[in-house]
Amino acid sequence: MTNWAEIARTKNVHAVRTAAGELDVNERDSRGRTPLMLFMTYKLPTEAVEILLEKGAEIEVTDKMGETALLKAIKFQQEGAVKLLLKYGARLDSPRGIRTTPWNAAASRGDRAVADLLMETRGAIRLTLTEDEQNLLDQLLNEEDRHKALEAVQSLDSAVLLHAFVNAYNWDDGAELMVAVMENSACAEITLLDMYDLADGDYWLELRKEEYEDDAHRTAFRKLAESLRARLEASMKE
User: Fold this and answer.
1) What's the CA gap between 232 and 234, in Å, rounded?
2) HSE of 176, CA atoms in CB hemisphere, 13 A
3) Among 194, 189, 160, 165, which residue's Cα sits nearest to residue 177?
4) Considering Cα of 34, then 53, then 42, then 74, what sign does the dihedral take?
5) Is 159 left (phi over 0), alpha (psi -120 to 50) or beta?
6) Do 27 and 3 form a contact (C-beta atoms < 8 A)?
7) What is the mean pLDDT of the chain?
8) Contact present, 54 and 89 (Cβ < 8 Å)
């Protein structure tokens, strides 16, 4: 009998409909993948994906890589499938935090449109900017007067713009503006997480005191890393 891998390779919707009436829509291959996951990998039409969902395909199971169908859809840039999986109740939040969510998977790939489809994820930030927001971000990034830039960051009341600024910032320009972002009450947890990674926080925290204390630039980054770590550890306890 024809198996799901062969059917997925054909991308034939009629064959999918026939197989869905004869085969187990939740069987696993040697890698733990279900037919739904295979359909994401081989980029089948959304009509084929919905046939499986209507037949009761399980959404939240994971393969041996720990990936769900939704994570596969994001990985293989299947925006239509993402929308379908959401329609059928795909889970967005993770007990291990936002870093392990489908939203973060899309954001990490730079796929803003798909990430914004997953905005109901707890702690998510909209990534696609409006024209006005983009103009404000460009002005801030290009502001040569350090004092004006600092005041602008301190007065921002948009988690979206603070997040965009952090991810577009030239970190060679020092830690001062990032400290201002961190201290801004509108700054989201995911922004703090990105800041810690972008600043290479682990590196600064592993330095011995004599490796940074005589250098103002290095000392500032060390203090930023310490503050970010403290903020993130506190948020994990809440």
Assistant:
1) 5
2) 11
3) 165
4) negative
5) alpha
6) no
7) 95
8) no
The answer to whether 87 and 52 have CB atoms below 8 angstroms apart is: no
Instruction: Work out the number of other CB atoms within 10 angstroms of the CB of residue 186.
Output: 14
Distances (CA, A) of 142 to 122, 134, 148, 214: 32, 12, 11, 30
In whole angstroms, give the CA distance from residue 76 to residue 106: 10
- Between CA 44 and CA 53 the distance in angstroms is 13
Query: ∠ at Cα 108 (106, 110), nearest 5°?
Result: 75
Residues of the chain with pLDDT under 70: 1, 238
**Entry pTM:** 0.90
pLDDT of 38: 97
Second CATH level (architecture) for the domain 4-91: Alpha Horseshoe (1.25)
Distance of CA 212 to CAs 71, 206, 217, Å?
A: 41, 11, 8
Q: Which two tokens stand for residue 121?
A: 């994820």
Distance CA 226, CA 52 (A): 49
80 token code pair: 């239509």
- What single letter denotes the amino acid at residue 115? A
* Sequence-separated (6 or more) residues with CB below 8 Å from residue 8: 35, 38, 39, 41, 42, 44
Domain boundaries of the chain, sorted by first residue:
4-91, 131-237
Cα four-point dihedral sign 191, 193, 196, 198: negative
Distance between CA atoms of residues 137 and 169, nearest Å = 10
